[in-house]
Specification:
Distance between the termini: 19 Å
Structural class: alpha+beta
Radius of gyration: 28 Å
Largest sheet: 8 strands, mixed
Order of helices and strands: HEEEEEEEEH
Number of strands: 8
Helix content: 25-40%
Strand content: 25-35%
Number of helices: 2
Length: 172
């Protein structure tokens, strides 16, 4: 097998292995996920967990922040139990522990909710004109554009020359 083919085959195998193994580390199934993790008084909060098993239910407890208990029901998202509650308008800024207890087995999981007085997601209004056309990250300077094109051409020519020498067996 040629060295180039071995290199490409090895790279493809590494990428494939990474794609196969990545989902195993994608989430934390042992805790209670709180969305959004930061909310304002009066805001709606969604919590979910996979700790109760596929099709499991749980009873949520948001009394630390002053909200009532809530029910978590099975969802279609990877077997998670999901529930919602509203942060009371009288809630004070701070970090609060939200808990859930699985109906089957009694397992208790927790997550943190940060209450702030200002929303983290403020609407952004665009200003100015849209910059389109020729130019790069540094601007539409023709000298810089020409220098960049020349550098790419030299790199491509050098790479082609090295591959040609290797293929002829001249060695590098």
């Amino acid at each position: 097998m040629r060295p180039t083919a071995r290199l490409l085959t090895g790279s493809a195998l590494v990428v494939a292995a990474g794609l196969v193994c990545a989902p195993a580390y994608a989430g934390d199934s042992d805790g209670l996920e709180v969305f959004p993790s930061s909310a304002v008084p009066g805001g709606q909060v969604t919590v979910n967990t996979a700790a109760c098993g596929d099709g499991g239910t749980a009873q949520g407890d948001a009394s630390a922040v002053g909200a009532d208990s809530f029910t978590m029901a099975p969802s279609t998202h990877e077997g998670d139990a999901i529930g919602q509650f509203r942060v009371p308008p009288s809630a004070q800024p701070g970090t609060y522990e939200i808990a859930a207890t699985c109906a089957e087995g009694g397992r208790r999981v927790t997550g943190d909710l940060v209450v702030t007085l200002t929303s983290q997601r403020q609407q952004v209004h665009p200003r100015g004109s849209v910059k389109t056309g020729v130019g790069g990250a540094l601007g539409p300077d023709p000298v810089q554009t020409a220098a960049g094109v020349a550098a790419l051409a030299v790199a491509a020519a050098g790479g082609t020359w090295l591959l040609h020498r290797r293929a002829r067996g001249d060695g590098i």
